[in-house]
Design brief:
single chain; mainly beta; about 110 residues; 7-stranded mixed beta sheet
Length: about 110
């Protein structure tokens, strides 16, 4: 069974940092592009970042320069480092491979 499990979310103050982790099982993520999405309360799903099998990374304009995506193929994980967080980054963050998406981890940025 293909499964993605996110962790690492929490409550942080503006300007703070978090590192989100996504553990994959049931497939080897090294062969696939992986993406992070987020959904804020009352809003639609927003694409945040992606990394392809060759390691090329992609970012939305809203997070470019603040977030960093990476992958650890040996441990079948993908990460999203969130720096200089803003209140508007508050959302449920999901990792995804194609149409498979995890349950998400909540990030709340508040003073």
């Amino acid at each position: 069974e293909v499964q993605l499990v996110e962790s690492g979310g929490g409550l942080v103050q503006p300007g703070g940092s978090l590192r989100l982790s996504c553990a994959a099982s049931g497939f080897s993520l090294s062969k696939y592009r992986m993406d992070w999405f987020r959904q804020a309360p009352g809003k639609g799903l927003e694409w945040v970042s992606g990394i392809n099998s060759g390691g090329t990374t992609y970012y939305s304009d809203s997070v470019k320069g603040r977030f960093t995506i990476s992958r650890d193929n040996a441990n079948n994980r993908v990460y999203l480092q969130l720096n200089n967080l803003k209140t508007e980054d508050t959302a449920m963050y999901h990792c995804a491979e194609g149409r498979t998406r995890g349950q998400g981890t909540q990030v709340t940025v508040s003073s």
